[in-house]
Amino acid sequence: MKLHIADMLRAQKKHISFHTPGHKRAGADITELSYSDNLYCPTGVIARAEADIAAILGAHASFLSTDGSTAGVFAMLYAAKIMGARRVALPARSHPSAFHAMAAMELSPVVIPQGTAYGIPLQPAEEAIAEAAAQADALFLTSPDYYGFFPPLIKAREIASRLDIPLLVDGAHGAHLHFTERYAGRYADLWVDGAHKSLPAMTQGAVVSANAKWSGALSEGVRVFRTTSPSYPILASVEYAIKYPRSPRIEARAEAFKREYGCVLNEDWSKLLVPFGATADGAQRALEARGVYPEFNDGNYLMFYLSPCTREREISALGRELKRLVRGEVDRDAPAGGIPIYREGI
User: For the whole prediction, is pTM greater than 0.90?
Assistant: First the structure.
């Protein structure tokens, strides 16, 4: 499939810059010029890239972001507000950007409780979602979460439809799932993909999308919260990432690795969650001394984040390194790590 933004950048002619950015060097890092389109009101290569992305993601409209998923979360909640929402049901461990956006927009949270198991935050139960959603004007979920687990998306869709409220999904860690039944866009009215997290996009690259009823409101939201000075390399990388092919070999290797090396059997192939208990800090130091850097260490688990670009030999190398390390027992009553739980007034 054609890469509209990257092809435009490759075709540009050398010129003398009397425009931003201030480094004045020819190359991919340019501003809005006569041939490069304009993210704020696209009609050229950016518009064509966004149309392709929407078709791939099953959206009525998709909008590129160089401000990460955070800008997408703000835009989604803004869209919900201008369409009448005043109260939003969301899990207690939702990303801080959701609570920050709600505070800025004077939206009231209806917090859905989340339990924990062996130091891992659990996705909210269907009953808890239904109870909170009944008190709200919109439902906001995270799918998947940072630990590789999913909320009950089918039931959440049924709940939102029954109550006639929108379902918003923070899919910051799920952009690699758009080929699958797990993908947030199959259920949500509004959703954001953090392309840079699990696909080959540059940091801060994301996409926020909507179905037909919500695309106009989301368009207004991105105009409010998205930068007017975007990075063209990031834009090009997001288009490339969404069009990047699936890697069944890596997915299968990851699932086999989980069983072979005693990982938590979560639901997302891209997240290898290895229990270490009290030895987690020492394990991290030992791995980093050998040039292996995990995504996070929450004090009980080390998580290793894969993508379709991960190589099989890298996964094998990780397995060899894990064999060197001592693992402790995870305390079943340990407080969950990751994103802090929401507390009113914080």
Answer: yes
